[in-house]
Amino acid sequence: MYVPDGPARQLFGGLHRICHHNFLPRISDCILTPTKTAEPDLTNRWRQTGQCLTDIDLGSFHPDNKSTQWGQLWMERKHEFLKTTDSQHLIICVSRLTREKNIEELLQAMTQLPNCALWLVGDGNHRCELEQISAQSNAASRVKFWGYQKGKALHAAYAVADVFVCPSLTETFGQTVNEALASEVKVALPRVSVFVEAYGECLPSSAYWQPNNLKAMVETIRTQLNTDRLPDRSKLKSWNRACLSLLKQYHTIQVPAEESLWFLSILPLWWLLTFLFAICLCVVSAFSLMRHKSSLPSN
Fold it and tell me: Which of 199, 135, 201 is nearest to 164 (CA)?
């Protein structure tokens, strides 16, 4: 939920913290997260925590997508781009182009990878700024922004890459990493707790770099480009495996009935106060709008 700056942030932000940090942990029996280290400050408030596995459609994301119609098109684009930029390897990053995704650091790394070209697949409010940063670097000609892709076009884009890089330091799981691994593409990641927990059994230690270390990032990408080891798709979670794991979590939850019932008993009061507050907010907004209209000069 977006809350603007000023008094509204103080009011709504306070209600949000009360609800999520105090109220919900007491009336809920368990919190499930894709990785246990995703939100430690939040999960520590719950009595029980469990893992809700993030699955991957192994049928859609597959190395054989290279041979599809989209795969052949992407391969033609790849060979043409590598030839035009005098590059040997293609790096791909599939991501929202927003500040928290840390794409800027990947663009900085490209200046130290002269034999590599980069495809950025995705869109976001930071795209224009990233395009400007890229244009001002010595790697400008080796970076291509492809925008948002979906369906078979996206599936095939992964399969033609030589290495997938996710520079983000703030993921809760990193589904794009899952998709790259399912496509049997070599992966390079920052060594943050979420990635280590989620993909530790799928990737060797050499696939991770120390966060906020540009030199280490460059070396990890080079290492992954030169390795012959491909990801093991059998270690990824399918839809069926993820659903069975979730069902098991539901069966093992122990309900602390006494405390939960006490908090559940005040739910009607909570909803009543919320309803009254919403009405008051609407009335105040309507009054403010009427005052604003009355203050406008008439034609």
Answer: 199
